[in-house]
TrEMBL record:
SUPFAM superfamilies: NAD(P)-binding Rossmann-fold domains. This is SDR family oxidoreductase. The keyword Transport does not apply. It comes from the Bacteria. It holds the Pfam family adh_short_C2. The keyword Oxidoreductase applies. InterPro entries: NAD(P)-bd_dom_sf, SDR_fam. Belongs to the short-chain dehydrogenases/reductases (SDR) family. Keywords: Oxidoreductase. The lineage of its organism: Bacteria, Pseudomonadati, Pseudomonadota, Gammaproteobacteria, Cellvibrionales. It comes from Candidatus Paraluminiphilus aquimaris.
Length: 260
């Protein structure tokens, strides 16, 4: 069991992480738990979230709960926030990580697919931020971490237009929150991660040639690790050392995308 909570300034804080049953969300949960953060691991599949919680308990001995919730059901989000606050008495960190999308040409994209992606993406992100905001204000050191994608920065965005649109909307909402709430003690930042998640592995199997060519464009010549690369950076972003970082979109991808 390894735990840095005794010396961590994040010890005792509470984080709600959507899509925490696997991949990047799970990696973020591990890195925060290692620092003594109590984690609410939220996802559509309860068993996956329970696995995350079990690993947190075994590796770090930190408190954590698994919560089943499909965040596309916007009416369920009030109860989600209430449950976490009722359990731990506070909320300090909100990570909007869950995603569903369509990678398809514009002509082959249905409005139903587009709408569902927007519900899970910017609509759920906005509602989660709205519901969490009073609790993050009470924290006096609230952090919101939203996830976007470098797909929006592709020179050729063929078949990625819908996915990019959903994630760019989240970036715009994040900037708005950073400007409106920054003076109140809530920092909002967006990360654009590249990591060996189940979603990326599916993409590699689906489009192997494209995935291999993409990997070759990463200057550091490797795909990131969900915990060691993405999770650790998020933990840093939530720490006092990053207290003046607000409203930024940060690519954690080994230099693959030029954010300029």
């Amino acid at each position: 069991m390894s735990n840095d909570s005794e010396t961590s300034p994040l010890a005792g804080k509470v984080a709600l992480i959507t899509g925490a049953g696997q991949g990047i969300g799970q990696g973020i949960a591990f890195s925060l738990a290692k620092r003594g953060v109590k984690v609410a691991a939220v996802g559509r599949t309860l068993s996956k979230c329970e696995n995350t919680v079990a690993q947190i308990s075994e590796r770090f001995g930190t408190e954590a709960i698994a919560v089943e919730c499909d965040i596309s059901d916007l009416a369920a989000l009030d109860g989600l926030i209430e449950r976490v606050v009722a359990t731990y008495g506070r909320l300090d960190i909100l990570v909007n990580n869950a995603v569903t999308t369509t990678i398809n040409s514009l002509m082959d994209t249905t409005l139903e697919d587009f709408e569902r992606g927007y519900k899970v993406g910017p609509m759920a992100t906005l509602r989660m931020m709205q519901l969490a905001q009073p609790h993050l204000l009470a924290s006096r050191d609230g952090n919101i971490i939203n996830l976007a994608t470098a797909a929006a920065k592709r020179w050729d965005s063929s078949t990625y237009g819908v996915y990019a649109a959903q994630k760019e909307a989240i970036r715009a909402l994040s900037r708005g929150a950073a400007c409106e709430w920054g003076g109140m003690g809530i920092r909002t930042n967006t990360i654009l991660p590249l990591a060996k998640s189940p979603a990326l592995e599916m993409w590699e199997q689906w489009r192997p040639e494209e995935a291999a060519a993409f990997a070759d464009t990463v200057p550091m010549k490797r795909i990131g690790h969900c915990e060691d690369d993405i999770g650790e950076f998020v933990a840093l972003l939530c720490s006092p050392e990053s207290r003046y970082v607000n409203g930024q979109s940060i690519a954690i991808d080994g230099g693959q995308v030029n954010m300029g």
